[in-house]
Amino acid sequence: LLAMDESIATCNQRFANANIAQTVEMRRGYRELLLTAPGLSNYISGVILSDESIRQTHSNGLTFVQVAHNAGLLVGIKVDTGTIEFTEHSVEKVTEGLDGLRQRLQSYFRFGARFAKWRSVIAVVDAQLPTLACIEANAHALARYAVLCQEAGLVPVVEPEILMEGDHSQARCQEVTESVLCSVFCQLRQQGVALEAMLLKPNMVISGLACDRQNTATEVADASLQCLLRVVPAVVPGILFLSGGQTGEMASGRLHAMHGRHPVSLPSLAAGTPSGNPILPWTLSFSFARALQYPALEIWAGKETNRNAAQQALLQRAFCSSAAAKGEYSVMLESR
What we know:
This protein has helices at residues 8-17, 24-35, 64-70, 101-111, 132-151, 170-190, 217-231, 248-261, 267-270, 290-300, 307-325, and strands spanning 2-3, 46-49, 74-78, 83-85, 93-95, 115-122, 155-162, 199-200, 238-241, 283-286. It contains 11 helices and 10 strands. The protein is 43% helix and 13% strand. It has 336 residues and is α/β, with parallel strands linked by helices. Mean pLDDT is 93; it is low at 270-277. The strands form 2 sheets. It has an 8-stranded parallel beta sheet. Strands 4-5 form a two-stranded antiparallel ribbon.
């Protein structure tokens, strides 16, 4: 998936960083550039839009939903409304958007969306934070969103993200990720969500950006797979990793390593399987935003003359990400 569902505020901030005018017309032009990249569906199955972009139209008069469908892409929609402080004096966040969600989902289905996304954000602050109360509040919201999606005929993409910001170790990230996913799947079951009709969009298990020791691709692959094998039910059909601030090259390399490492890693979890190796029950793929978009945004810089070059940069990142999802990525592809 190509996640192009940034809020107006987030999109404007990225435009400001690139010295691009923060106007509705520039946002529309940038999204048109992404959706019309020739051959995008060779590497991408669907796009996640925002409330603004699902209502926008191409310069030829077609809606962006029609443009995506004509290009062979499924359309999804981000339906959460952002985060607020969990409590008045807390640094923790909880995601909002459940009020009126049933009606909004029905409306988005009529627009042509066939899946939806809700993102919760969990920060690893110290040994005490995140609190169990905050984890469970976000898990409950994710589950309520998911069951309402299925009621409306939309596939829910459940996104509990452990943020990369901080100096926490990879082991601490794995501890928190497992705790969050355990709570999420407990709530999904309690709310009656059909697990075989949802997708999970988790973070990779990575040390914080400020940690003294950064992980290799194989370390990220092993820790991420161990975490998922412990807590994600086999009936879930797909796991689409978020990039979470990683560069495109890092995200592709680590996703690729998950395909290359699982036959020889995690021996304790492999015990009892016929081959002595762990068997992954889900498809491993990606739902990247910045890792796909950033090169294109920097090249475009708001100038129509850079449109083709920007689209080629997007296609290059999509090609590399697609190769990683098949276990066929190598750094040699970066110069294709």
